[in-house]
Amino acid sequence: MAYELKQVSVSLAGREVLRDISCTLQEGKWISIIGPTGAGKSTFAKVIKGLIPAYKGEYTLHRQPLPGDSKGRMKAVREIGYVFQYPEQQIFETTVYKELTFGPKMLGHSRGRIEEALEPVLRQVGLPAEILSASPLVLSGGQKRRVAIASVLITDPKLLILDEPTAGLDPLSRQALLQMLREWQQANHRTVLFISHQMEDVAEYSDEVMVFHEGQLLGHSDPGTLFMKNTEILRRAGLPLPEPVQLLRLVEELSGRTIEVDSCRERDIFDKVRLVWEARGLHHDE
User: Fold this and answer.
1) Which of 201, 218, 237 is the last residue of a domain?
2) Smallest Cα–Cα separation from 190: which of 46, 18, 28?
């Protein structure tokens, strides 16, 4: 079961912003989308959600065409959740309880189902149940963002789109938020579509990476292949290597040897680099 696009193109205000996109998004994967500003990343995500009513090409959901309205325009896909940049700015209800229950009510979930979901979703995002009666206005920025994300998770999306969800967060808060989302994704075998400019986060959390440039899909592969082998794709898109990979290449250059690593994740690279660097120091002492 998957989400599949075949030669999809989108024009907005007379300009082609996506061109001949063909891809398959497999269920249960964390798929990151990278590319420079204006590459078409957010437009692609909106097509997946069903927020772009008219496009050329074919988009099938679990091998079935997406339903449209009476004029044939695509409608928003109910099973897909969307967390926009700075989601806390979209909070509009007077209490956290009302904010969390609004979405499920609109989707027709029963009151009992909603009530059962409240405590688990708060626990998932690291918030206490006592917060339900609070006004969002009195919450910290980090709490507001977690409430906004919880309001999407409580609808139990099969695919979750995250459009720069860590924008404006410090490194520790960013890591905590992404780790929480990764645990939710793995525990529920959900699909995540993660748009980010942070190459380090992409390398750390992704199962697959899609590279966009000028409305085209330049590459779609696992992060190890992209960041360790197919770096020409990154160069064409004007994107940097993740900092741990940059460090790896520097140590390889200084040590004069190739360092084999199992992945492009930070810990895997640092462990191998440390061993090589320590061995180099011992050799110099001799």
Assistant:
1) 237
2) 28
Report the alpha-carbon distance of residue 26 to residue 165 in Å, rounded: 21
The catalytic site residues sit at: 164
Q: What per-residue confidence (pLDDT) applies to 149?
A: 94
Q: Are residues 224 and 259 in the same domain?
A: no
CA proximity to 175, closest of 185, 165, 189, 190: 165
Which residue range(s) make up the domain with 179? Answer: 2-237
pLDDT in tens, 49-74: 999 988 999 999 888 887 777 676 77
Pairing status of strand 80-83 against strand 30-34: unpaired
CATH number of the domain where residue 233 is located: 3.40.50.300
Burial of 16 (0-12, 13-18, 19+ CB in 10 A): middle
Instruction: Pick the closest to residue 162 from 38, 24, 41, 1 (CA basis).
Output: 41
71 and 136 fall within a common domain: yes
